[in-house]
Amino acid sequence: LMREGKVATFFALIISGEATALINHPGMEVKAIEQGELIGHLALFLGGKRLTDVVATKDSIIAVFEYAKLIKMNEGSPELGTKIIRLISFAGANALKEDIAGLTEASRFEYAEMDNIAIF
Q1: What is the DSSP letter of 25?
Q2: What CA–CA distance (Å, rounded) separates 105 from 6?
Q3: Which among 84, 7, 108, 16 is positioned nearest to 51, based on CA atoms?
Q4: How far apart are the first and last CA of the chain?
Q5: Contact 1, 54 (CB under 8 A)
Q6: How confident is residue 77, by pLDDT bands cut at 50, 70 and 90?
Q7: What is the pLDDT of residues 34-60, one digit of tens each?
Q8: Quick check: 37 and 21 in contact, CB under 8 A?
Q9: Confidence tier at 96 by pLDDT (50, 70, 90)
Q10: Sheet of strand 38-39: strand arrangement
Protein backbone atom coordinates (compact mmCIF):
# COMPACT_ATOMS: atom_id res chain seq x y z
CA LEU A 1 0.00 0.00 0.00
CA MET A 2 2.90 2.38 0.83
CA ARG A 3 6.69 2.34 0.44
CA GLU A 4 9.18 3.80 2.91
CA GLY A 5 10.89 6.90 1.54
CA LYS A 6 8.41 7.54 -1.28
CA VAL A 7 6.72 10.93 -1.54
CA ALA A 8 3.39 10.83 0.25
CA THR A 9 0.39 12.09 -1.71
CA PHE A 10 -2.41 10.53 0.33
CA PHE A 11 -3.44 8.94 3.59
CA ALA A 12 -6.00 6.18 3.99
CA LEU A 13 -8.51 4.72 6.41
CA ILE A 14 -8.71 0.94 6.80
CA ILE A 15 -12.43 0.24 6.28
CA SER A 16 -12.00 -3.52 6.60
CA GLY A 17 -9.08 -5.93 6.67
CA GLU A 18 -5.63 -5.52 8.18
CA ALA A 19 -2.20 -4.20 7.28
CA THR A 20 1.24 -4.07 8.84
CA ALA A 21 3.74 -1.23 8.93
CA LEU A 22 7.31 -2.44 8.31
CA ILE A 23 10.70 -0.74 8.41
CA ASN A 24 13.00 -1.71 5.54
CA HIS A 25 14.92 -4.24 7.59
CA PRO A 26 13.94 -7.87 6.96
CA GLY A 27 11.16 -8.93 9.27
CA MET A 28 11.12 -5.76 11.37
CA GLU A 29 7.44 -5.15 12.06
CA VAL A 30 6.54 -1.75 13.47
CA LYS A 31 2.81 -2.06 14.01
CA ALA A 32 -0.23 -4.08 13.08
CA ILE A 33 -2.93 -1.81 11.62
CA GLU A 34 -6.56 -2.76 12.03
CA GLN A 35 -9.97 -1.73 10.80
CA GLY A 36 -10.75 1.90 11.65
CA GLU A 37 -7.12 3.06 11.76
CA LEU A 38 -5.44 5.66 9.56
CA ILE A 39 -2.31 4.95 7.55
CA GLY A 40 0.01 7.43 5.87
CA HIS A 41 -1.19 10.44 7.82
CA LEU A 42 2.08 11.10 9.66
CA ALA A 43 3.88 11.90 6.39
CA LEU A 44 1.56 14.89 6.01
CA PHE A 45 3.23 16.45 9.07
CA LEU A 46 6.73 14.94 8.95
CA GLY A 47 8.25 16.08 5.71
CA GLY A 48 6.09 14.41 3.09
CA LYS A 49 7.91 11.08 2.77
CA ARG A 50 6.69 7.69 3.93
CA LEU A 51 8.23 6.55 7.19
CA THR A 52 7.53 2.82 6.69
CA ASP A 53 6.28 0.29 4.19
CA VAL A 54 2.64 -0.63 4.73
CA VAL A 55 1.46 -3.98 3.38
CA ALA A 56 -2.00 -5.52 3.50
CA THR A 57 -1.97 -8.75 5.51
CA LYS A 58 -5.61 -9.60 4.68
CA ASP A 59 -7.94 -8.62 1.88
CA SER A 60 -8.76 -5.01 2.72
CA ILE A 61 -10.93 -2.12 1.71
CA ILE A 62 -9.39 1.30 2.24
CA ALA A 63 -10.69 4.84 1.75
CA VAL A 64 -8.01 7.03 0.15
CA PHE A 65 -7.75 10.76 0.89
CA GLU A 66 -5.45 12.70 -1.44
CA TYR A 67 -3.60 15.61 0.18
CA ALA A 68 -4.17 17.89 -2.85
CA LYS A 69 -7.92 17.30 -2.69
CA LEU A 70 -7.92 18.01 1.05
CA ILE A 71 -6.27 21.37 0.38
CA LYS A 72 -8.89 22.23 -2.25
CA MET A 73 -11.67 21.10 0.06
CA ASN A 74 -10.26 23.27 2.84
CA GLU A 75 -10.33 26.27 0.50
CA GLY A 76 -13.99 25.61 -0.42
CA SER A 77 -15.16 24.55 3.04
CA PRO A 78 -12.70 25.68 5.72
CA GLU A 79 -14.85 24.38 8.57
CA LEU A 80 -14.92 20.81 7.19
CA GLY A 81 -11.24 20.96 6.22
CA THR A 82 -10.32 22.08 9.74
CA LYS A 83 -12.28 19.19 11.26
CA ILE A 84 -10.50 16.66 9.05
CA ILE A 85 -7.06 18.12 9.79
CA ARG A 86 -7.86 18.03 13.52
CA LEU A 87 -8.85 14.36 13.25
CA ILE A 88 -5.62 13.55 11.40
CA SER A 89 -3.60 15.47 14.00
CA PHE A 90 -5.34 13.66 16.85
CA ALA A 91 -4.69 10.26 15.23
CA GLY A 92 -1.04 11.15 14.67
CA ALA A 93 -0.56 12.38 18.22
CA ASN A 94 -2.15 9.23 19.64
CA ALA A 95 0.04 7.00 17.46
CA LEU A 96 3.17 8.86 18.56
CA LYS A 97 2.11 8.67 22.22
CA GLU A 98 1.60 4.89 21.92
CA ASP A 99 4.96 4.47 20.18
CA ILE A 100 6.80 6.43 22.86
CA ALA A 101 5.05 4.54 25.68
CA GLY A 102 6.38 1.27 24.21
CA LEU A 103 10.00 2.38 24.01
CA THR A 104 12.71 1.67 26.55
CA GLU A 105 14.32 4.69 28.24
CA ALA A 106 17.46 4.38 26.06
CA SER A 107 15.54 4.21 22.80
CA ARG A 108 13.28 7.13 23.85
CA PHE A 109 16.33 9.42 23.73
CA GLU A 110 17.28 8.07 20.31
CA TYR A 111 13.70 8.54 19.06
CA ALA A 112 13.57 12.12 20.34
CA GLU A 113 16.79 12.95 18.48
CA MET A 114 15.37 12.09 15.03
CA ASP A 115 15.90 14.98 12.59
CA ASN A 116 12.28 15.75 11.86
CA ILE A 117 10.54 14.99 15.17
CA ALA A 118 10.39 17.22 18.20
CA ILE A 119 8.92 15.81 21.39
CA PHE A 120 7.68 18.27 24.03
Answers
A1: S
A2: 30
A3: 7
A4: 31
A5: yes
A6: confident
A7: 898 888 887 876 778 888 889 999 999
A8: no
A9: low
A10: 38-39, 10-16, 61-66
CB-CB contact of 1 with 22 (8 Å): no
**CA–CA gap between residue 95 and residue 74 (Å, rounded):** 24
Cα–Cα distance measured from residue 106 to residue 35, given in angstroms and rounded to the nearest whole number: 32
Those residues whose C-beta lies under 8 Å from the C-beta of residue 66, and which sit 6 or more positions away, are: 9, 10
* Cα–Cα nearest to 55, from 75, 73, 33: 33
DSSP string covering 38-83, please?
EES-HHHHTTSB-SSEEEESS--EEEEEEHHHHHHHHHH-HHHHHH
